[in-house]
Amino acid sequence: MNRTGPQPPRVPVPLRPDGFLLSAEPSFQQALDEAAAIANLSPSSHNCQPWGHAWLKSDRAKALAYELLRGRDDTSAGKDSAGGTDRSTGTDSIYLALAQDTDRSLSALPAHSAEMHLSCGSYWHLLLRALAAQGWLPTAVHHLGPEAAHRAAADAGWPRNWHLLSLAVLNRTGVPPSTDLAELRATAAARRTNRAPYRDLAVAPEALHELANLSPTARDTSARPGVTVRHLRSPVELRRFATLIADHAGRDFSDDAAWRETHSYFRWTAKDAAARPDGFTPSQIFGAVSPPRRLLARVALNPAVLPRLCRLGFDRYLGSQLARTVRTTPVITAAGLPMDVPTASDLLSAGMWLADYWLTATRAGLALHPLSILTQHEDLCIELQQRFGLPGRTFFVARLGYPAATAAATLRRRASAFTL
Ligand SMILES: Cc1cc2nc3c(=O)[nH]c(=O)nc-3n(C[C@H](O)[C@H](O)[C@H](O)COP(=O)(O)O)c2cc1C
Asked: Of 10, 156, 221, 344, which has fewest CB within 10 angstroms of its CB?
């Protein structure tokens, strides 16, 4: 098992005038490194970056992939793009695995499991799209159930802390125009969570229509589990939604275990951020604040202090502050799955959809700010669904609008990658 080492300097690849590559095509390893750098910009809950991927290259690892694909215990997993002919066993095929890194995962709330699957799905979508943009097309993408994950964990070479989620089979095709990759890289880098107030500007109906009707791209072989999107934007809906936030958002701060975990992702100093490049810096959460206010926030949000302040109503105050921002937001996005209890596989596909939604919004000049408090607690999720007549299970809620200022880029670790 080789942990991917430092990447070699990128050698400029000669282009033909029409944008096609000349002879110096990147090797699969180069393409994978490039794709991982892009996928690593994916959103994740608390910026915990709980993903990892492995190139199953050795005979032993390929035999494991073959075995898992033959006897897969998935339910809503991927389909074969080759019209029902499973080409997953072709000799030239590349086998790629997606895993959840349990050492990097959130666990304080039961709902964090769903958020980890959404985050990993988002990474998988970007990784596969970036590989497709370099001519490595997925002929099959299969999300795997718990049996397959146990089988992989029993393999001697499998990383101890990795939970296998999905397998992709890739085949080499013609090299697409290099602009595809450049565009994807630029959009992935421009996508940010933006928690500041948005511009007082209605979102263009065409943009909302496109976002509500994302179609799988020709290169995307993952099954879409039928995500439905509601865009709440009438004044009445927005007022009612803001009331829901004002009433409940304080729970983020008053749930002791959840807050302790959230707080462990704050990187208060530059030194801490450099040592642990995940989580958030104060400016990502509070925007540009003066050093004294930052210090005040640091003291108030300390888990040893916050519960006392919550007894004085500080949690309700913080909830009301968020509600104020919500009140001036042009659109609230609520995305749902058709089933009441989505499986891990459904949530992984929903995460792939989420990446597509967020990238499409970014391309339209829009920003998102997830408000997961309403999906993290069963009673709040039911209240949300009932108040707005949302079908199925809502798995993602966010503010959507045109940003007034660019949000700072978040910290990033190196992508967790292995060759097995
Ligand atoms: C499933 C999921 C849930 C999230 N929930 C919240 C949330 O409740 N509040 C919030 O401020 N950000 C939330 N985020 C955004 C993450 O904090 C953000 O993606 C991460 O910090 C990385 O920053 P970036 O999106 O700017 O790259 C969520 C992201 C994901 C993928």
From this structure: 156
CB atoms within 10 A of CB 57: 17
Pocket of ligand 1 (CB under 6 A): 43-47, 115, 118-119, 192-193, 195, 280, 369-372, 410
Domain limits for position 162:
22-189+411-419
Residues 162 and 257 both lie in one domain: no
| Assigned domain for 392 exists | yes
100 CA from centroid of ligand 1 (Å): 17
User: Tokens 């007549």 correspond to what residue?
Assistant: 389
Nearest to 81 by CA among 137, 1, 124: 137
Q: What is the pLDDT of residues 223-252, one digit of tens each?
A: 556 899 999 999 999 999 999 999 999 998
In terms of Cβ atoms closer than 10 Å to its own Cβ (0-12, 13-18, 19+), residue 218 is exposed
Ligand 1 atom 17 nearest Cα: 46
List the one residue out of 181, 188, 187 whose CA is nearest residue 32. 181
What's the pLDDT score for residue 55? Answer: 97
Task: Give the separation between CA 142 and CA 154, rounded to whole angstroms.
Answer: 20
Look at the block and give the residue holding tokens 């803001």: 242
Measured in Å, residue 371 CA sits from the centre of ligand 1 at 8
Q: Tell me what percent of the residues of the chain surpass a pLDDT of 70.
A: 87
Q: Compute the distance from residue 4 Cα to the ligand 1 centre, in Å.
A: 27
Specify the DSSP class assigned to residue 214.
Answer: -
To which residue do tokens 């609008």 refer? 401
Q: What is the pLDDT of residues 134-144, one digit of tens each?
A: 999 999 999 99
Examine the domain organization and report whether 146 and 283 are in the same domain.
no
Contact 139, 87 (CB under 8 A): yes
Q: Does the pLDDT value for residue 343 go beyond 50?
A: yes
Question: The CATH number of the domain where 152 resides is what?
Answer: 3.40.109.10
Q: Which of 144, 48, 101, 79 is nearest to 348 (CA)?
A: 144
Q: How far is the CA of 75 from the centre of ligand 1 (A)?
A: 28
Residue 44 to residue 413: CA distance in whole angstroms: 12
Q: Is 38 exposed, middle or buried (0-12, 13-18, 19+ CB in 10 A)?
A: buried
Q: Could you read off the pLDDT of 358-379 as tens digits, one per residue?
A: 999 999 999 999 999 999 999 9
Nearest to 216 by CA among 291, 336, 125: 125
- How far apart are the C-alpha atoms of 358 and 348, rounded to whole Å? 15
Are residue 230 and residue 360 in the same domain, yes or no? yes
- Please list the alpha-helical segments (H only) found in 171-222: 178-190, 205-212
Q: How far apart are CA 28 and CA 32, in angstroms?
A: 6
